[in-house]
């Protein structure tokens, strides 16, 4: 109990003033936890405030169309989070009469919710002693106990979950979980942790054995795939373009994009116009220019997108039905959103 007491004492003096901590409403806690997956608090905070203002209840979120939800999510990335959030909101509103499940076992059944999020909601909102384990928790526990089991291995996931569960303060599990997450984010940081002022400095194995920079251990990541994207940004004489919704499974499902020609390397103008996709799309004469002189590299967790935006000017195109004056209404990947921000200011 010494570990949890020390941790909670630190937290009561140093916790961050965050809007979702002023509530135990599971809807707000759920929103915050989903948004902060793979996202820093500083970035996610404005999205959380915008979401709760637009969708103050789970019924409001459930009634929204997916395109609106994705547009509001634009820039946060990992769009499956937004789609799952919207799916579960409709399930809660329509099948559960707006009542959020109140136990870990029921919460984890919701789409897009895993062990971490279910544990956070169950402990914070319903006082169930289920320990959270996220990147911050892995780091704190691996350093304090000197554990070298890779945190992204099946053995590591089980080991750290079991350890966290033995440490949780069952009388205040929500406070304990928030304390250990804040401690990892603010004090036991990935780089330059504040070891000199750490309340655990006298018993931390990593500090004693000079392993702080080596822990936690991660197994080698999968090889990153390189892909080469050529977006065709069409401008017709009547100020229209083509913007299509991506169908099927994928990271950008439900988002909109310009016509895309994917190549196996970086290509030039001659290679572009001689491709079958280009010839099929543009039977008439066009004027072509490359918008970005240097290819834009958009890095995702498992692939790097080497991207060129080609401005294609043509008189008329039957498939071009989207007005340029309305283009910003559509949810697009951040890669295209950044392009549009620059392109539209230069028009």
From TrEMBL:
<dbReference type="InterPro" id="IPR004035">
    <property type="entry name" value="Endouclease-III_FeS-bd_BS"/>
</dbReference>
<dbReference type="InterPro" id="IPR000445">
    <property type="entry name" value="HhH_motif"/>
</dbReference>
<dbReference type="InterPro" id="IPR015797">
    <property type="entry name" value="NUDIX_hydrolase-like_dom_sf"/>
</dbReference>
<dbReference type="InterPro" id="IPR003265">
    <property type="entry name" value="HhH-GPD_domain"/>
</dbReference>
<dbReference type="InterPro" id="IPR011257">
    <property type="entry name" value="DNA_glycosylase"/>
</dbReference>
<feature type="domain" description="HhH-GPD">
    <location>
        <begin position="35"/>
        <end position="186"/>
    </location>
</feature>
<comment type="similarity">
    <text>Belongs to the Nth/MutY family.</text>
</comment>
<keyword id="KW-0408">Iron</keyword>
<dbReference type="GO" id="GO:0046872">
    <property type="term" value="F:metal ion binding"/>
</dbReference>
<dbReference type="InterPro" id="IPR023170">
    <property type="entry name" value="HhH_base_excis_C"/>
</dbReference>
<dbReference type="GO" id="GO:0051539">
    <property type="term" value="F:4 iron, 4 sulfur cluster binding"/>
</dbReference>
<keyword id="KW-0004">4Fe-4S</keyword>
<protein>
    <recommendedName>
        <fullName>Adenine DNA glycosylase</fullName>
        <ecNumber>3.2.2.31</ecNumber>
    </recommendedName>
</protein>
<keyword id="KW-0479">Metal-binding</keyword>
<keyword id="KW-0378">Hydrolase</keyword>
<dbReference type="GO" id="GO:0006284">
    <property type="term" value="P:base-excision repair"/>
</dbReference>
<dbReference type="InterPro" id="IPR005760">
    <property type="entry name" value="A/G_AdeGlyc_MutY"/>
</dbReference>
<dbReference type="InterPro" id="IPR029119">
    <property type="entry name" value="MutY_C"/>
</dbReference>
<dbReference type="GO" id="GO:0000701">
    <property type="term" value="F:purine-specific mismatch base pair DNA N-glycosylase activity"/>
</dbReference>
<dbReference type="GO" id="GO:0032357">
    <property type="term" value="F:oxidized purine DNA binding"/>
</dbReference>
<dbReference type="Pfam" id="PF00730">
    <property type="entry name" value="HhH-GPD"/>
</dbReference>
<dbReference type="GO" id="GO:0006298">
    <property type="term" value="P:mismatch repair"/>
</dbReference>
<keyword id="KW-0411">Iron-sulfur</keyword>
<dbReference type="Pfam" id="PF14815">
    <property type="entry name" value="NUDIX_4"/>
</dbReference>
<dbReference type="GO" id="GO:0034039">
    <property type="term" value="F:8-oxo-7,8-dihydroguanine DNA N-glycosylase activity"/>
</dbReference>
<dbReference type="GO" id="GO:0035485">
    <property type="term" value="F:adenine/guanine mispair binding"/>
</dbReference>
<keyword id="KW-0227">DNA damage</keyword>
<keyword id="KW-0234">DNA repair</keyword>
<comment type="function">
    <text>Adenine glycosylase active on G-A mispairs. MutY also corrects error-prone DNA synthesis past GO lesions which are due to the oxidatively damaged form of guanine: 7,8-dihydro-8-oxoguanine (8-oxo-dGTP).</text>
</comment>
<keyword id="KW-0326">Glycosidase</keyword>
<dbReference type="InterPro" id="IPR044298">
    <property type="entry name" value="MIG/MutY"/>
</dbReference>
<dbReference type="Pfam" id="PF00633">
    <property type="entry name" value="HHH"/>
</dbReference>
